[in-house]
Amino acid sequence: MTSPDPAGARTFRQLHASGLLILPNVWDAGSARLVESLGARALATSSAAVAWAHGYPDGDLLPVPLVAATVAEIRRVATVPLSVDVEGGYSTDPAGVAETVARVVDAGGVGINLEDGTSEPYLLCAKIEAARQSARRLGVELFVNARTDVYLRNLAPPERRIAETLARAEQYRSAGADGIFVPGVVESEQIRAVAQGVRLPLNVLARAGLPDAARLEALGVRRLSAGSGIAQAVFGRIAALASGFMKTGASDPLGEGAMPYAEINALIGAGPQGARRP
Questions:
Q1: Nearest to 84 by CA among 137, 149, 135, 17
Q2: Within a domain: residue 114?
Q3: Is the pLDDT of residue 277 over 50?
Q4: Beta-carbon contacts of residue 273 (< 8 Å; ≥ 6 apart)
Q5: Looking at the domain assignment, is residue 149 inside a domain?
Q6: Whole-angstrom Cα distance, residue 223 to residue 225?
Q7: Using CA atoms in the order 90, 104, 139, 4, what is the torsion angle rounded to 10 degrees?
Q8: pTM for the full model?
Q9: Residue 120 is part of which domain span?
């Protein structure tokens, strides 16, 4: 049984104070248990991966009860703090976002990603305020990571992207955001300019061309997310194995790089009390 996690929220906040927090995003209890066992200091969900695992496309279409159920399932088997990508809050109404956040926090989430997408910044400001108030009613100082899609969705011309990102970041900080997530920025000097200009911990997204962890930390980044990257790689591997198996029926490829059955079973069974049975 899960419940709000005020202590986990405090721990998660402290992980942004210095250094670089690396989050290999997960999508269910099994992936969470595996990633935690590899030494993750915190976990975060990928909204896309969670949606795909439930048979929905990404894009604010996943029913909130499934989001909350996923959080509860992860918290049943994992002990480190969990941040949850709630996309745009699954509502255009701040009151609806508050309801979403209440369900996520009640299930054990201690942080959220909340994005602006193509909406005007004032709407995300209202959502941030509603999210924070909702979590506080449950006794949790939620870490609100405000995502701006200026780079990801080309919301400004190249020469204006840094300025637009900084302007939005300041609005989101004033509304109560604890961190700023800027997916899509990859060039070192642009990352440095954003990190120096925002007054909150900067989160970037893993993608081709992004500097490595040591360089990102030197540039001022405080959080690096895998996003849907790990899940995409897993889907690619499933597609290759399943198509090959259906074509040839060959068994040997299924064992190449596979984690042994006994090791997986022992890993899941060694989780916190309650991990062995629902």
A1: 135
A2: yes
A3: no
A4: none
A5: yes
A6: 7
A7: 180
A8: 0.95
A9: 6-230
